[in-house]
Amino acid sequence: MSDRYARYERLKFERPADGVLRIVMSNPGKLNAADVVMHRELAEIWRDVDADPDVRCAILTGEGTAFSAGGDFGMIEQIVDDFEVRARVMREARDIVMNIIDCQTPVVSSMRGVAVGAGLVCGLLADVSIVTPDVRIIDGHTRLGVAAGDHAAIVWPLLCGMAKAKYYLLTCDPLNGAEAERIGLVSLCVSDGELDGKALEVATKLANGATRAIAWTKHALNHWLRTAGPAFDASLALEFLGFTGPEAAEGLASHKEKRKPKFT
């Protein structure tokens, strides 16, 4: 593996086929939750992938039985308590979204288990998203007491329509993979036993395709996402404003205490 990937701590890398890089989110014992390190690395990885001449398609997946279980509570506490951390993580959250949108290399996501938080951002912004029938996709922002920021405003309405986007983003109800495919939130739904093979099949097909034509098609299509830039910036600002208020404090406490939140 080239030196450009040696510095990563929470992301592991494999070369399952010529031109294909598999990126594995890894936070053992925490269902690959995004801590401070992983959050930063998910913002940076797409620039390294884009600059790697040996990578013509990337696969993003999680280690073990989960994709990613959302934001690590320790990181969320720091966001709530420290302005400098809050400002830095907000910038990283923007970079996660915009860097994967601007990455000319096609990205395939392979999701099983639970898919929440920063991992889900990349999973749904991937060019081809593949899930298992029983994956649990949850945008948990309002349950935490903050606005549905990061990727939600920029891509959910475009993928599944405003009515479904509002329902799931306002209620935080989970979606399984079959329903996510039915409403158009993801590209494909396959059995758990087929997931890894299907992701590699699609990635290999893209890696062996016309590299420039695929990259330029992705770039052109992603202008639909770029036109939602003002809505995205507003949602991100409102999300991080929420971290300064009492609802986020109660949302975080209720998660840690494993109880329903008491918003007043």
Automatic annotation (TrEMBL):
MF terms in GO: enoyl-CoA hydratase activity
> EC number(s) for this protein?
4.2.1.17
| PROSITE patterns in alphabetical order | ENOYL_COA_HYDRATASE
- Entry's family note: Belongs to the enoyl-CoA hydratase/isomerase family.
- Please state the span of the N-terminal signal peptide per the UniProt entry: none
Which InterPro entries does the entry mention?
Answer: ClpP/crotonase-like_dom_sf, Enoyl-CoA_hyd/isom_CS, Enoyl-CoA_hydra/iso, Enoyl-CoA_hydra_C
Keyword Lyase attributed: yes
Supply the alphabetized keyword list: Lyase
What protein name is recorded for this chain? Enoyl-CoA hydratase
> Does the keyword field hold Lyase?
yes
Gene source species? Phenylobacterium kunshanense
Q: Which Pfam families does this chain map to? A: ECH_1 (PF00378)
